[in-house]
Design a protein that fits this description.
By secondary structure, this protein is mostly helical. Helix 2 crosses helix 4. It contains six helices and no strands. The radius of gyration is 14 Å and the shape is globular. The longest helix has 16 residues.
């Protein structure tokens, strides 16, 4: 449903916006740190890969979209996101962007 309403590039932003709003229930001044963060990217990638391994692509994708936003230089996140997008039959442009990012980051 999110994919029909928002472009795939906005999924991570939407998820982060939701997380920030939830945290503000307890503290109205709470802000999500959106700076590049490899640790957060690793955690989100691990969650996504766990879902991916169980063939739960729709569960995996939001984690992986957030992971590449958390650290756009994290190869594992881009690689897993490319796989997820391909298995979900995401628009070709989305799949190719993830593959290109992973290729550009590979050693």
């Amino acid at each position: 449903i999110i994919e029909l309403v928002r472009p795939s590039a906005e999924i991570a932003k939407l998820m982060n916006d939701v997380a920030e709003k939830i945290s503000q229930v307890g503290d109205p001044r709470a802000k999500l740190d959106r700076s590049a963060n490899r640790r957060r990217a690793r955690i989100l990638t691990e969650l996504g890969v766990t879902s991916l391994a169980a063939n739960r692509f729709y569960d995996a994708r939001p984690y992986l979209e957030q992971a590449v936003e958390a650290d756009p230089t994290f190869l594992d996140a881009w690689n897993s996101l490319a796989t997820t997008r391909a298995w979900m039959f995401a628009p070709d442009d989305d799949v190719v962007r993830a593959i290109d990012a992973a290729r550009d980051l590979s050693p």
